[in-house]
Amino acid sequence: MFRKIAIAIAFSPRQQALLAEGRRLQQLFGAQLLLVHVGERTPDKEAELQRQLSELAVEPQGVSVFWEEGDAAQQILALSRGQGVDLLLAGALKKENLIRYYIGSVARKILRQATFPVLMLIEPQRTPRPFKRIVIHAGTKEGAPATIKAGCGIARLEAARQVHIVKDVKMWGLTMALAGEAPEHEYSDTRRSLLQDQIDRVQRMVDQCDECRGLRINIKVAAGKSGYELSKFSRQAEADLLVTETPHRNLNIFDRMFSHDLEYLLADLPTNLLLVPQE
Q1: Tell me: the pLDDT tens digits for 65-85?
Q2: What pTM value is reported for the model?
Q3: What is the edge-to-edge ordering of all strands in the sheet holding 162-169?
Q4: Coiled coil located at which positions (predicted)?
Q5: Which end of the chain is more exposed for a tag (fewer CB within 10 A), N or C?
């Protein structure tokens, strides 16, 4: 599934935990591990990195280290593309004195421009745990199949206990169309029919996805702002991974005027986040 996993390292206090998480994913997927640091290369940094890798029993032949200089986001993206990376691993930031995680400026630039999946971990652990409760966002018609495939592929490898697929539906159009022109029972019937149609669409995607077979999958339709609903549901489900698609970079004027739903997630991450580009 993922054959080359890159980790953006910054020699922060959580670096060894992030390396441990990367090591686990490397073993899970049978992948090659690439470590990328943008900044000064010093003997102290090299010694510290080697010490951490040695403690994690990382095989030297399974890891490559790259030292780059320049703009952090651009260098990480350029190297990842050049090396054929298909998953980039990075850590989110915790706001001081708050149980709240958010994406820093470098990571935001990467997320907006990455053409490969990016996994943000809110609390990397030195003794990593598998993802057992996974929420998958079936967003756009174009992006949902790839997102479901990626999320369910991980769920199968992790032997996840529960997989939820959330499909958001905009109800304001229905409300406006029927406002004042239809009795309440007709509105309820139309709403119910619309929600069932969305469930059926997701079920067809699941039926066509080999990675979904054998998994316990719950399909949920949520009405409202998808960023808020995704965050709320992920917390309620005690999810340890949320999988959603990367928004298309060609945003229209509506998206530029109002914050994209993803921005809500990035400002207050409910759990670990995997962003999957549209195919």
Answers
A1: 999 999 999 999 999 999 999
A2: 0.88
A3: 63-68, 32-38, 4-8, 87-91, 118-121, 273-276, 241-245, 133-137, 162-169, 217-223
A4: none
A5: C
